[in-house]
């Protein structure tokens, strides 16, 4: 029978498919998101050879920022490119 | 103490592009930026010296010597132009 019919026949399994499906979706989309946005991952050597150079001096690229005043104080700083 | 006025002690300042413990890319970026600066603005352009100080603080001396030998032989794969 179809997937929807199976879930309707066993509604207790609904949350299982929800959470497991959500986990699978996250496992696929999170690496793709990182490939697009993370400043240390090089995907396109010709058009974007140094992706870390787009990070501004007041930007935090780590997961958690315990001291936002430090980064906010760096707002006007110029980027030290060559 | 032998000298009354000690020279000001400095090191490479924090760079938001490289916030983690691994400073390898920071070292390499400063090395490349120094030689790009030299090639673009000439050897006596004073602001280039900051890159020189940064890579001498950050990079292991063995790496600097290896890259210098490669650069003099024309074998360093980094792009020092533009």
Automatic annotation (TrEMBL), chain A:
The chain crosses the membrane at residues 12-35. This is NADH-ubiquinone reductase complex 1 MLRQ subunit. Pfam families: B12D (PF06522). Keywords: Membrane, Transmembrane, Transmembrane helix. The keyword Transmembrane helix applies.
TrEMBL record, chain B:
GO terms for cellular component: mitochondrion; respiratory chain complex IV. It is found in: Mitochondrion. Gene3D superfamilies: Cytochrome c oxidase, subunit VIb (1.10.10.140). Its main location: mitochondrion. It comes from the Eukaryota. Keywords: Disulfide bond, Mitochondrion. Pfam families: COX6B. Disulfide bonds join 27-59, 37-48. PANTHER family: CYTOCHROME C OXIDASE SUBUNIT 6B. Component of the cytochrome c oxidase, the last enzyme in the mitochondrial electron transport chain which drives oxidative phosphorylation. Belongs to the cytochrome c oxidase subunit 6B family. This is Cytochrome c oxidase subunit. It comes from Hesseltinella vesiculosa. The lineage of its organism: Eukaryota, Fungi, Fungi incertae sedis, Mucoromycota, Mucoromycotina.
